[in-house]
């Protein structure tokens, strides 16, 4: 059980999402960096599919009446424990009964994931515990956590092992790798040059539905396109020329031309972009993108 | 710009029921494969699902194309290539369930109705009559969970999307966007013209079948 004493900016219950329902208009959703949530789950002895919290930019204060075993992965946030013990990332944390864990602002990046031993026991909706905020279902009552919420945990099984995780080393630069999109031929030379040489800033209106970018306008032919299936990472360009990278909870269909698609290997980096961050795009071969395996987390037992 | 995708020939249009050439494949990032399917979209969709191919995570049908989302790291198997090349019959026109949807037209429920009727050069009652006189077919769902894109809107009632979207419309709002009619399952921003509202629950994730309307279903609007 956890008690929310103070809510963060947008604390969402997430698991690995509900893929396979696009025909109903339902996006797969789930943790923005599924490998980071899975790693946090492993640190507390859970299956990768257990539900945890996805915490964005500014975190909550949580109380553990009966104590618990927790782990944090992803972006570092300012964090304190009422016991005075240090809050380390990528490690198994054992919390005493009545202890509080207080997260402040993200110090770099945008999102972190908190796993709790047993996993959060919110009801499954369409086989997932992930919150789908735009549709208002899943997670805890279909919404972000609020002060006063109490979330039960499933009982943990097996012994607690103290582990440390090593995230894959990423290149923390502004370059996102993309493959050319299905409507790239609709863009004129000026539009393509703007998109592939320009530097964009992540707009404050960005959320899990999409990252809106401010920067050089991407001009294109104004044609009425039939709506087509899209997926996270697809870069749509509306008539105003300001690109939108579709996010995890974005619509499954879209009628704007898609100039490019952020490759799967770089989607976890989208999870860490915050308003004001710079973004540039570079194309790589589709075949190369398809060969890039998901970066692996490594684990060691703490002595 | 380099891309290993095959450039499609824009003059080649897939004919209904005929196999579409590889040229009709386009990638949307490295996991999304868009396949032009013409009039056979729903038949192709049903055929692909029935094959239960392990590399496919999801298939999203839209008007004239399917988006296949491949599992991370999976590639296109010979079975999938063969499946996409198999000839199919075009989707039958009158297959799905027929739904009667009761609609309160105009007033607060349909704030854009007077302007749309004026644009169409008819009075409001005539517009409602013409909207409710035809049978619609669900082409696909998208935009929001359970949002149906309906075919069959009489051409005189077509209207381009609003220049500026409404910040919030009510759940159940019946709307016109271009050549489509649609129904907003949940409240939220909306770029289409709102002509009425239904009390029908278009999407309920707790139902056995969460979406009330499925691709291929037919819809009649009944003025309240």
Topology:
The complex is a heterodimer of chains A (303) and B (224).
Chain A: E1 2-6, E2 12-14, H1 34-43, E3 52-56, E4 61-64, E5 68-74, E6 77-81, E7 93-95, E8 99-106, E9 111-116, E10 150-151, E11 163-166, E12 175-180, H2 189-197, E13 200-202, E14 210-214, E15 228-229, E16 234-236, E17 244-246, E18 253-254, E19 258-262, H3 267-270, E20 278-283, H4 286-291, E21 298-301
Parallel strand pairs in A: 12-20
Antiparallel strand pairs in A: 1-4, 1-10, 2-3, 3-9, 4-8, 5-7, 5-9, 6-8, 11-21, 12-19, 13-14, 13-20, 14-17, 15-18, 16-17, 16-19
Chain B: E1 25-28, E2 32-36, H1 41-51, E3 56-62, E4 65-70, H2 78-85, E5 98-105, H3 113-119, H4 124-132, E6 136-141, E7 148-151, E8 166-169, E9 173-177, E10 180-183, E11 188-190, E12 193-197, E13 218-223
Parallel strand pairs in B: 5-13
Antiparallel strand pairs in B: 1-2, 2-4, 3-4, 5-12, 6-7, 6-13, 7-10, 8-11, 9-10, 9-12
Which characteristics define this entry?
heterodimer; A: 303 residues; mainly beta; Cyclophilin; 2 domains; 7-stranded mixed barrel; 5-stranded antiparallel β-sheet; 4 helices; 21 strands; 10% helix; B: 224 residues; alpha+beta; Gyrase A, domain 2; 7-stranded mixed beta barrel; 4-stranded antiparallel β-sheet; 13 strands; 16% helix; 30% strand; disordered N terminus
Structure commentary:
- The complex is a heterodimer of chains A (about 300) and B (about 220).
- Chain A is built from four helices and 21 strands.
- Chain A is mainly beta.
- Chain A has two domains: about 160 residues, no CATH class; about 120 residues, Cyclophilin-like (Cyclophilin).
- A seven-stranded mixed beta barrel of chain A has the order 12-19-16-17-14-13-20. A five-stranded antiparallel β-sheet of chain A has the order 6-8-4-1-10, with no helix packed on it. Chain A has a five-stranded antiparallel β-sheet with strand order 2-3-9-5-7, covered by helices on one side.
- The mean pLDDT of chain A is about 95.
- Chain B has about 220 residues and is an alpha+beta fold.
- Chain B has two domains: about 60 residues, Gyrase A, domain 2 (2-Layer Sandwich); about 130 residues, Cyclophilin-like (Cyclophilin).
- Chain B has four helices and 13 strands.
- In chain B, strands 5-12-9-10-7-6-13 form a seven-stranded mixed β-barrel. Chain B has a four-stranded antiparallel β-sheet with strand order 1-2-4-3, covered by helices on one side.
- The interface between A and B is large, with 51 and 47 residues.
């Amino acid at each position: 059980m956890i008690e929310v004493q103070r809510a963060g900016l947008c604390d969402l219950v997430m698991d690995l999402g509900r893929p396979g329902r696009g025909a109903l208009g339902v996006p797969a959703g789930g943790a923005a960096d599924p490998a980071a949530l899975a790693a946090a789950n492993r640190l507390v002895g859970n299956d990768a599919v257990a539900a945890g919290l996805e915490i964005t930019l500014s975190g909550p204060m949580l109380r553990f009446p009966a104590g618990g075993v927790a782990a944090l992965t992803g972006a570092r946030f300012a964090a304190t424990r009422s016991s005075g013990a240090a809050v380390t990332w990528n490690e198994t944390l054992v919390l005493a009964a009545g202890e509080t864990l207080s997260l402040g602002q993200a110090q770099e990046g945008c999102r972190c994931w908190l796993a709790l031993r047993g996993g959060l026991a919110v009801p499954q909706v369409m086989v997932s515990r992930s919150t789908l905020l735009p549709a208002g279902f899943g997670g805890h009552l279909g919404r972000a956590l609020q002060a006063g919420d109490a979330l039960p945990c499933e009982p943990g099984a097996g012994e607690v092992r103290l582990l440390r995780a090593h995230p894959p080393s990423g290149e923390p630069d502004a370059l996102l790798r993309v493959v050319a999109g299905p409507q790239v031929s609709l863009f004129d030379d000026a539009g393509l040059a703007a998109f592939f040489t320009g530097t964009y800033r992540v707009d404050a209106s960005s959320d899990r539905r999409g990252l809106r970018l401010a920067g050089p306008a991407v001009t294109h032919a104004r044609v009425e396109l039939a709506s087509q299936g899209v997926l996270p990472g697809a870069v749509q360009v509306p008539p105003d020329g300001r690109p939108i990278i579709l996010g995890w909870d974005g619509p499954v269909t879209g009628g704007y031309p898609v100039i490019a698609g952020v490759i799967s290997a770089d989607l976890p980096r989208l999870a860490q972009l915050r308003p004001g961050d710079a973004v540039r795009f570079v194309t790589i071969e589709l075949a190369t993108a398809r060969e890039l395996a998901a970066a692996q987390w490594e684990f060691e037992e703490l002595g | 710009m380099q891309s290993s995708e095959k450039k499609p020939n824009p003059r080649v249009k897939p004919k209904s029921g005929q196999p579409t050439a590889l040229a009709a494949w386009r990638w949307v990032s490295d996991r999304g494969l868009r396949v032009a399917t013409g009039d056979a979209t729903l038949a192709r969709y049903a055929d692909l699902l029935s094959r239960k191919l392990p590399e496919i995570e999801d298939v999203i049908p839209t008007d004239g194309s399917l988006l296949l989302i491949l599992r991370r790291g999976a590639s296109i198997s010979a079975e999938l290539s063969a499946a996409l090349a198999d000839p199919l019959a075009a989707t039958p026109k009158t297959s799905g369930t027929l739904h009667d949807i009761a609609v309160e037209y105009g007033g607060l429920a349909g704030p854009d109705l007077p302007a749309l009727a004026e644009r169409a050069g008819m009075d409001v009652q005539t517009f409602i009559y013409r909207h409710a006189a035809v049978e619609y077919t669900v082409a696909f769902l998208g935009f929001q969970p359970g949002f149906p894109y309906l075919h069959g809107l009489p051409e005189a009632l077509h209207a381009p999307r609003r220049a500026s979207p409404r910040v919030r419309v009510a759940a159940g709002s019946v709307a016109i966007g271009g050549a489509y009619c649609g129904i907003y399952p949940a409240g939220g921003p909306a770029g289409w013209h709102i002509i009425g509202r239904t009390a029908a629950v278009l999407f309920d994730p707790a139902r056995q079948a969460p979406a009330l309307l499925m691709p291929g279903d037919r819809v009649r609007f009944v003025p309240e």
